[in-house]
Amino acid sequence: MEQDVKSLNQKELEAVLVSLGEKPFRARQIYHWMHVRHASSFDEMTDISKALQEKLKAGCQMPVLRQVTVQRSKLDGTMKYLFALPDGNMVESVRMKYKHGNSVCISSQAGCRMGCRFCASTLDGLARSLTPAEMLDQVYRIQEDIGERVSHVVVMGMGEPLDNYENLIKFLEILTDENGLHISQRNITVSTCGIIPNMRRLAREKLQITLAVSLHAATQEKRRELMPVANKYEIHELVEACREYFANTGRRVTFEYSLVSGVNDGAKDAVQLAGLLKGMNCHVNLIPVNPIRERDYVQSGSRAVVAFKDKLEKYGITVTVRREMGRDIDGACGQLRRRQIL
């Protein structure tokens, strides 16, 4: 089986090169080509010999994603990409332009098995998890396409990142490596629907990334209706794991809360949410739910959103309403891919 060299850190790549009878410094050159210059083939690596290029082609692979399509929002310039993986599976990535720079939202899996009721990514189940190289290359291809540096990365696209834990950790290591893109850990957000054992593992890694937890309800009963993962992990245990994350890392947790009209957006819901998060150093991100054709959920009206926000603030909770990006271009996770594969 061919070795995926793009998923290796520089030390691991050195070991591969030595096993091929090459000098260790060659690893530094190849690593630079892959992670700084974003080469799409070994042939592009002009400062290594043809003989080494042939050795690499014979025993190694360097996965590169193929851009299938890109949509650009006329509203805010958001760009939504559909990429084909080497095996033909497809994933979505999004580039958002902010004052602070370019933020890219990447996928960690092709599809998803979590089954959240308001998400299009999960409608066709999980095809497979992505390798570190496939996660990295979403960032690299977008950076090459726009001709500008990516400064922030959000692992919140298709898939559940903590369901692909080892590959996620290796991806973060290479993404933040000073010999690669060298994106600051503080500019990275990883989202989870609440896989508690892996949240605790992540806390022990003591990284400086932001953890975003998809909460979407303030009670166990209501969360179970929206998110099947709640059948396995109880809501108070989930919040306790978030407190542990802050204690281990000093990084406050962000709670994602999608507002669905008549389901979880009432005054009682806001009071229950404030009670659940009382005394915790956290931030609540309110998201008007993205309508998807396959579900009958309706987005909360602006008055309901403001009332919910005001109620949380009255109880001392830090809260923002997420600015909607790319609504005119299949903004919700999984919609573009689903249209392509059906």
Question: Could you explain how this protein is built, in words?
Answer:
- The chain has helices at residues 10-19, 25-35, 50-59, 132-146, 165-176, 196-205, 220-226, 235-249, 267-276, 302-314, 335-341, and strands spanning 3-4, 60-61, 66-72, 79-84, 90-98, 101-106, 109-111, 126-129, 150-155, 188-192, 210-214, 253-259, 282-288, 319-321.
- The model has no long low-confidence stretch (mean pLDDT 92).
- The strands form three sheets. Strands 3-4-5-6-9-10-11-12-13-14 form a ten-stranded mixed sheet, sandwiched between helices. Strands 1-2 form a two-stranded parallel sheet.
- It is of the alpha/beta class and 342 residues long.
| Quaternary organization | single chain
Query: Strand content of the residues, in percent?
Result: 15-25%
Largest sheet: 10 strands, mixed
Order of strands across the widest beta sheet?
A: 3-4-5-6-9-10-11-12-13-14
Helix % is 25-40%
Helix segment tally: 11
End-to-end gap:
32 Å
Instruction: Write down the Rg.
Output: 21 Å
